[in-house]
TrEMBL record, chain B:
<feature type="transmembrane region" description="Helical">
    <location>
        <begin position="131"/>
        <end position="153"/>
    </location>
</feature>
<feature type="transmembrane region" description="Helical">
    <location>
        <begin position="266"/>
        <end position="287"/>
    </location>
</feature>
<keyword id="KW-0812">Transmembrane</keyword>
<dbReference type="GO" id="GO:0022857">
    <property type="term" value="F:transmembrane transporter activity"/>
</dbReference>
<feature type="transmembrane region" description="Helical">
    <location>
        <begin position="76"/>
        <end position="96"/>
    </location>
</feature>
<keyword id="KW-1133">Transmembrane helix</keyword>
<feature type="transmembrane region" description="Helical">
    <location>
        <begin position="187"/>
        <end position="209"/>
    </location>
</feature>
<feature type="transmembrane region" description="Helical">
    <location>
        <begin position="29"/>
        <end position="47"/>
    </location>
</feature>
<keyword id="KW-1003">Cell membrane</keyword>
<feature type="transmembrane region" description="Helical">
    <location>
        <begin position="369"/>
        <end position="386"/>
    </location>
</feature>
<feature type="transmembrane region" description="Helical">
    <location>
        <begin position="103"/>
        <end position="125"/>
    </location>
</feature>
<feature type="transmembrane region" description="Helical">
    <location>
        <begin position="318"/>
        <end position="337"/>
    </location>
</feature>
<keyword id="KW-0472">Membrane</keyword>
<dbReference type="InterPro" id="IPR001851">
    <property type="entry name" value="ABC_transp_permease"/>
</dbReference>
<feature type="transmembrane region" description="Helical">
    <location>
        <begin position="216"/>
        <end position="237"/>
    </location>
</feature>
<feature type="transmembrane region" description="Helical">
    <location>
        <begin position="398"/>
        <end position="416"/>
    </location>
</feature>
<feature type="transmembrane region" description="Helical">
    <location>
        <begin position="160"/>
        <end position="181"/>
    </location>
</feature>
Length: 458, 431
């Protein structure tokens, strides 16, 4: 079943034990450099398929992103319309009064998107600016952990690694942050910082473990992260029902004690109230976590684009074989990238525990952010500020999703559908081009063939 | 598994080609067995538990009732622990001196069975363990895993990494429930599940074969998409109450089902489980003994060579991935129609990933993958039985964690050598 075919591997590395491992394939055509027979091309095999796919994802343009979002919203609209009872009722007598059906469709879609806007940007139904703008702050509050985890996945992506282990890393980080919050009495602001650092370390350890195993044994990180997600889940479940570990004392529920108030991230309302001289201003949930996320974005932008470490990361992401020939310690880059990736995902975990959910958590504290982060990173094309804005978009979808669910009775999971459809379309630019009949980049514009016959000159 | 390489010399016209066989002797397997033997010895002598363990052999529906077998805990555990130690030594000798330098599969299986018996005897000291019930439960938990693993094996052997097993199971379960509620027909529900699994595969195949998108990305996103879609649809469509007519009834096979232990274990199930027996055999036979299987494997190992001899790589991949999806979808139908009897959101709960783990742990071989799925199902069923028997010696979370932990160890090269089909995960671009 796995007899080695001679000449199949041009350059076997220890990292090639699994089928998923990026490996050059002889049937994949010749790189331009190789065709001309230049010296380096002979020594350095073409980058593995996964890295080339990554480049394709990175290089497609904003138009594709926009079109992918439009297509996803169309798909969501169809789903909403098809499952809307009023539309179904009106469609029952479509041939008698077709206008009714179209009216119902319009009302259904219009209602949904108005609800989305009301839940994610500005609510005109509420009095005053402070109340009206609350949805926007909700969007940012939802976006903060998404951006943090998305940055983590993006850093790994840039090295050519898929970090699907967000769930496990968030769980471990959340457990550490929570444990620090209720175990050590510290002064307010420092307590929060210590808890955040603890979460970063927790995520870094869980992520770095993957990088370490991959570097040492060549195991594929996708399998490792998927499996470690469940290991972390059951580990947390065990700790949650073990008295003295994470379980709140005196209860039998698998739930932790509430986060210690001195470690809780101050919210925007807290800050505004302070500025306002003690009068309560609004009830914003948006918290300091968002500032941490902005700092993290700036850090990742510096790391990837300005630092020598980032240069090595990108070199390995472009072509690990070439990077190794150039003297880069590829294995160490894998480990370091997974450590940083895990730490960033861990930041999301700390925001969850210290900001979003401070009343004690169970094993669902990750709230699907680990998987959402993949879609955020892909939509943001793994660029720091791209991830930042795609995180805000998905945060808006999430905030609006709750409002749609409450207002229109459409399950919030429609948001998940939109997200994954966006990513599917983004991953396949040719498909989007086919839908909108766009020309492929690099292809010659189709000029009309002249009807003239060529003059015979020879 | 062994690395066979053709002799470098060009053979003469009619001289037989001599294959040079590299023998890899790895001490890992005996060391692992040694660690487990040591654990057993520790349990037997450092933490001895006294009393009598009773193994219940008959279920309440058996016509021949057998009394539970009483077993004196301490001596039995001690004897088995010593046996395990001897087996580990034997394994070391085989690996060091044997002709192939590899551990025979039977030794691993015997070792595992003995270890489990010792563990059960030790854990359920002074209690009654419904042994047959444990095994029946294990088969029930394993059934969707086996379907998923078969789908995974087929898909990966043809060269498409299938991370979307979870999605195929879940969509299969949802469609089975949906059609079951709508039509009340079990057959229609089963077909709907197969079609649903196939639909997920269509997307996976189209994106990875036609649009050359990374297969892992597509698989992961498909899982998310199916989770969102089924949860959304389950929120707006009522798929809770599957009528009894749409559920598969238990069909005991006459006579065979009355054999103690074996009867209830193998021959007292619904049609889906019997279908699973056929599917396991069919996939094994098809992969290894038919032209279809040869072509499938060729495409997965060396698509260019397959293309050269006139096999359409893209089409072979597309239809076999679709078939894989259909098989996994039937596993989903089992979940919705047989095991649980309703659709609930995210009801697969990681089963697809355990199936993926079984594929890897079973080294992309259908029979080994099925054995791995049975092992993982057994771990889950063991957890259920132990909690039912009131045993708290081992926290259930660690038993649930076991399949995933084993897989991490397996891919890290600690348990056997793991190497999949050579071309899996790589799109084939005809040049």
């Amino acid at each position: 079943m796995s007899e080695k075919i001679p000449g199949e591997d041009q350059l076997p590395t220890p990292g090639q034990v699994l089928p998923l491992a990026p490996e050059p394939q002889s049937a994949q055509g010749v790189e331009p450099g190789q065709a001309s027979g230049t010296k380096p091309a002979d020594e350095v095999p073409p980058p593995p398929a996964a890295n080339r796919v990554m480049r394709e994802i990175l290089s497609s343009n904003w138009l594709m992103t926009l079109l992918a979002i439009v297509l996803a919203l169309v798909v969501a609209s169809i789903l909403i319309v098809v499952t809307d009872e009023n539309v179904q009722k009106a469609a029952g007598y479509f041939f008698a009064r077709p206008a009714d059906t179209f009216q119902a469709i319009g009302r259904s879609i219009g209602g949904a998107y108005y609800s989305l806007f009301q839940g994610a940007v500005y609510n005109f139904a509420r009095p005053g600016f402070v109340n009206g703008i609350k949805p926007l702050t909700e969007t940012l509050a939802f976006a903060a952990p998404l951006i943090a985890a998305g940055l983590g996945v993006a850093v790994a992506f840039r090295v050519g690694l898929f970090n699907i282990g967000g769930r496990g890393q968030i769980l471990i980080a959340a457990a550490v942050a929570g444990w620090i919050s209720w175990s050590f009495p510290l002064p307010p602001f420092i307590h929060m910082l210590v808890a955040v650092v603890g979460a970063l370390i927790g995520g870094a350890v869980w992520g770095g473990l993957v990088g370490f195993i991959k570097a040492r044994t060549g195991a594929h990180e996708v399998i490792l992260t998927i499996m470690l997600n469940y290991v972390a889940l059951y580990l947390i479940q065990f700790l949650l029902k073990t008295p003295g570990a994470l379980q709140a004392p005196g209860t039998s529920n698998p739930k932790t004690p509430p986060t210690d108030p001195s470690a809780v991230m101050p919210t925007l309302s807290d800050l505004l109230t302070l500025l306002n001289g003690g009068t309560q201003v609004g009830s914003f949930r948006l918290n300091v976590g968002f500032i941490l996320v902005i700092l993290a974005t700036m850090f990742v932008a510096w790391l990837l684009n300005r630092s020598s470490t980032g240069f090595r990361f990108r070199a390995v992401g472009e072509n690990p074989h070439a990077a190794r020939v150039a003297g880069i310690d590829v294995k160490w880059v894998f480990v370091l990238a997974m450590i940083i990736s895990g730490a960033l995902v861990g930041l999301a975990g700390s925001i969850q525990v210290l900001g979003t959910n401070t009343s004690g958590f169970g094993d669902g504290i990750d709230a699907g952010i680990g998987f959402d982060a993949i879609t955020v990173a892909l939509l943001g094309r793994s660029r720091p500020w791209g991830v930042f804005f795609s995180g805000i978009l998905f945060g808006a979808l999430k905030a609006g999703g709750y409002s749609i669910q409450a207002g229109e009775g459409i399950p919030i999971d429609i948001v998940v559908v939109v997200q994954s459809v966006i990513v599917l379309f983004i991953a396949a630019p040719p498909l989007v081009r086919a839908v909108f009949r766009l020309p492929a980049p690099g292809s010659k514009p189709k000029a009309r063939r002249p009807r003239l016959t060529a003059e015979v000159t020879r | 598994m062994s690395a066979e390489t053709a002799a470098p010399v060009v053979p003469a016209a009619h001289a037989p080609i001599v294959l040079e066989k590299a023998i890899v002797r790895s001490p890992k397997a005996p060391v692992i067995l040694g660690v487990f033997a040591l654990l057993a010895l520790l349990a037997a002598f450092a933490f001895p538990r006294t009393g009598t363990t009773r193994f219940g052999l008959s279920t309440s529906r058996d016509s021949i009732q057998l009394d539970p077998i009483p077993v004196s805990t301490q001596p039995v555990v001690a004897v088995i622990a010593v046996l395990l130690a001897l087996l580990a030594i034997l394994a070391a000798v085989i690996v060091a001196r044997g002709r192939t330098g590899k551990l025979p599969l039977w030794l691993t299986i015997v070792f595992a069975v003995l270890f489990v018996v010792a563990f059960l005897t030790w854990a359920v000291a002074d209690g009654l363990l419904p042994f047959t019930g444990l095994l029946v439960g294990a088969l029930g938990v394993s059934t969707p895993l086996i379907f998923g693993a078969l789908g995974g094996v087929l898909s990966e052997r043809v060269g498409v990494v299938n991370v979307a097993i979870e999605g195929q199971l879940l969509f299969g379960a949802f469609s089975a429930a949906l059609v079951g509620v709508a039509t009340g027909s079990a057959a229609a529900a089963l077909i709907a599940a197969a079609v649903a699994g196939m639909l997920v595969s269509f997307v996976l195949a189209a994106f990875s074969i036609k649009y050359l998108v990374d297969q892992v990305i597509v698989g992961v996103v498909l899982n998310v998409l199916v989770t969102g879609l089924t949860t959304f649809l389950a929120g707006v469509i009522d798929v809770d109450k599957i009528p009894a007519s749409a559920r598969f009834a238990t069909v005991p096979i006459p006579l065979l089902s009355e054999i103690p232990v074996v009867g209830p274990l193998l021959f007292r199930h619904s049609l889906i489980v019997y279908f699973m027996y056929i599917a396991v055999f069919a996939v094994w036979f098809g992969l290894n003994k038919t032209r279809w299987g040869l072509r499938l494997r060729a495409v997965g190992e060396h698509p260019k060579a397959a293309d050269t001899v006139g096999i359409n790589v893209g089409r072979t991949r597309f239809w076999n991935v679709s078939l894989a999806g259909a098989i996994a979808g039937i596993g989903g139908a089992y979940l919705a129609l047989d095991a649980i009897g309703l659709f609930s959101k995210e009801m697969t709960n990681g089963a697809g990933f355990i199936a993926l783990a079984a594929v890897i742990f079973g080294r992309w071989d259908p029979v080994r993958a099925v054995l791995a799925a049975l092992l993982f199902g057994f771990a889950t069923s063991l957890q259920n039985s132990l909690s039912a028997a009131g045993v708290t010696a081992v926290p259930k979370e660690f038993l649930l964690m076991l399949p995933y932990l084993i897989t991490v160890l397996a891919v890290a090269g600690l348990v056997g050598q793991v190497r999949g089909p050579a071309a899996a995960g790589k799109p084939y671009i005809k040049s």
